[in-house]
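Exercise (ungraded).
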Amino acid sequence: MSAPDRNGAGAAQSTALPHRKTPLGWDEAVDLDKPPAPIPEIAETEVPAELRERIEALMKRYPDHRSAALPALDAAQQLHGWCSPEAIGQVAAVMRVTPGYLSAVATFYDMLRTEPRGRRYVYVCTSVACHLRNAKAVHEAIVDQADAQGLEDFDIREFECLGACDMAPMASIDGRYVGPLDLDDAEELVAQLKQGREPLPGRGLPDPAFKLPWDERGANPPAAPDGPPTRQEPTPP
Amino acid sequence: MSETLETKVLTANFDTPNLHRIDVYEEQGGYRSARKALLEMSQDEVLEQLESSGLRGRGGAGFSMGKKASFIPKGSMDKFLCCNADESEPGTFKDRLLMQRNPHLLVEGIIIGAVAAGANRAFIFIRGEYSLQADILDAAVAEAYAKGYLGERIFGSETGLELVVHRGEGAYICGEESALLDALEGKRGNPRLKPPFPANQGLYQGPTLINNVETLCNAPVIIEKGADWYRQYGEGNSTGTKLVSVSGNVQRPGNYEIELGITAREIVYGLAGGPLPGREIKCWFPGGSSAPVLLPEDLDRPYTFESMAEAGSMLGSGAIIVVDDSIPIVGLALRLAEFYRHESCGKCVPCREGTNWTVKMLQRLDRGEATPMDIAIVADVQENIIGNCLCVLGDSMAMPIGSMIRHFRPEFEAHIEAARDRADREAIAAPVSAAGLAASYESGPGVG
């Protein structure tokens, strides 16, 4: 189906960053005289089979199917790159909820992108503990390098505490925590992202050899484990 | 040195390779406590053990876990257990370690918690940023299902328990228990009005027990060795061991498991190595960024719930953030306020507006556009946030910012003076242009 053009999509309707008219944190005004968008008809909505199956499996996990809203939006985001009006329409059709309900949810959570900022992400933690270890400068260095090297399709931004203050300053690249970072790491990190390689090998939390520079014990068990498990389909209860 | 200060109960076998696999975990004695709680003990006996162990919630509030579980009404309705793994309190990273290294310990703790509460459905609400830990938990839960430790008739008993790992999508407020329930129901994570408390009307309006990861991870050892054994650790009403996350300006940031009651100095200097050479500690947060800051002389206090409260702060989530003398306090206060402004859900006015005003005032202070009277106004705003909202997010900003102003008012004043001098010099040096003049009018009152 086409993008929901009525009130329902809320902030998801706003345009890409450089063109936005409203200040950060504000939603664009909606026409309150129009009725809200109804639940899209599943028969009239084109939903990729894979996404539909995934959302239906997610809904079965909960006593109330609406509990699947967050993981379903995440699944749609992985497919579309962001929670676009099209993505929200597809989730709404499968979940039998209004697009307005879903965009209200999507705009609340930091990890759900309501603007096309890039399919992959680099979150640089600049919260209190990282702030004490020069995180702002690390973020600026990564942004400068990304501009200089022309890194595209990445959502690079400051993020609130990522729960890895022992690795401060640190960043999460598509969920892989790397740290501690210093300003000189920015160039290498961005270059590796640009080449599509794993950034800073050996310095990510999931890496078997990962160790904080001052830690004799290491963050992972001494014998190399058989790697972190791969993401499995959750068992429906 | 560091070996003797640590007391490893939860993390005792963390160096075992492949501990995240169920066979390795069972070789280490895993799932014996869950079996015991289900097959050999009654619900009341489990509750009794948890309550008399004195185990207090490790997420921040420090409420007795056994008591909390005993509030769940008896009866045959659907009851829920939610494990709060939305560890977002700045400075806290202990649950990340527990879930990454020993996911089955948490699953076993959840089984015991479910027995205590009489719950038949459990959820782990894990923050979306922890995708590695969520993947590990997913795998552990699948292993437990395959073994018959989760699902119907677990361990051959009459009891069933379903467990789902639910990933959040990045919102600090979802660590607040009622906001967590809304997020789990697929809504915006807004805190609810209490009462009714979650024990009576929680998830899907059913009775719900909500516990932090570390709290639940303590349950297996209490059931295995008994409440009396557990109480040998700790001091007064703070029993057991605690994983302390030390971060900030120290030589060895990391997680350390200690017996509650050793001094904060032993943790910060003995375990984390103290400040970097040539630096001195200016202040420290004893329990995450929401705790009022304490001064270096408070380091000699025992690290317990009571002693931190006596000092005017709180043990909170057990996250010590150390700030050294190289850090300007105004910048730190501003960064803290920006965090809470960003994370405020916007439901209650004092928090939504108060966090925003605080950020704006601190920015003006930092730019040299404020007078000493503004410090009094910032402090006053903090006083008017505390206790006036549905949840404690606003208080979590107001308390540390208020404490910074209390302890470091001369530095705030000196910062204003220095910033004003700098702004004046720049204004004199800069040639006056029509555009600059227009900009200064646009930026509104309070400028100059």
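Further reading is listed at the end of the chapter. For now, observe: The first helix of chain A runs from residue 49 to 60. Residues 1-16, 222-237 of chain A have pLDDT under 50 and may be disordered.
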